[in-house]
Amino acid sequence: MLTPLLLRIKASSLAVFIVLFTACEQPAERKLPYYNTSDFTPHFEKAVSDNFHRIRPFSLTAHTGQAFTEKDMDGKICVANFFFSTCPGICPRMTVNMKVLQDTFLIDKNIQLISHSVTPDKDSVARLQAFAKSKKVDATKWLLLTGNKEEIYNLGRKFYFVEEDLGEKRSSDVFLHTENFVLTDKKRRIRGIYNGLSLSAMQNLIADIRALEKE
């Protein structure tokens, strides 16, 4: 039979174990880096200044027929990708994963999803509207963008860094095709890049979006 002293020692040891176990179980706070080059070298908060790389001003048209500019990104966490409506390869899977993001954050007004057409000469507003309807795109959360091809390609390559140039100068005549999703914060700074074909990458993206909301 345990004495009162031994009982107190045992209870105290158990309490210490519980505290240590609970501390070990607490997940570390998720800290997202900032990116300003196509090689995605991470920079952390102390290295970020007011003139750090961000998505430049632009003007495109959404599948709703309304203009969409960089000002519509300001104050919102955005996920951007590049696709085309007739793509038979990687785009269908990317669309499925964008739909997952749409449904996950549907009522969250802080999140904006944007898909840029890389064949804007074919993807008119009317065609994108039909595509959006067939894929159950909710325009309150996810917009499909069309517009000037050179502007879209410049944004993709030089500002979102979705396709690393590897030292080559590529014009809009060279087709832009990428599975990458890019996460930007409320100041249009790049905070992550993800394989839009990967379920595990989408899970990481969802976790990173939630981490950004806490900043």
Automatic annotation (TrEMBL):
GO molecular function, one term: metal ion binding
Database matches in InterPro entries: SCO1/SenC (IPR003782), Thioredoxin-like_sf (IPR036249)
Residues given in the record as Cu cation binding sites: 87, 91, 177
UniProt keyword Metal-binding, yes or no: yes
Keyword Disulfide bond in annotation: yes
Domain of life (superkingdom): Bacteria
Sorted UniProt keywords: Copper, Disulfide bond, Metal-binding
Pfam families tied to this protein: SCO1-SenC (PF02630)
Disulfide bridge positions per record: 87-91
PANTHER family, per database record: ELECTRON TRANSPORT PROTIN SCO1/SENC FAMILY MEMBER, LINALOOL DEHYDRATASE_ISOMERASE DOMAIN-CONTAINING PROTEIN
Homology family: Belongs to the SCO1/2 family.
Identification of the protein by name: SCO family protein
Gene source species: Spirosoma foliorum
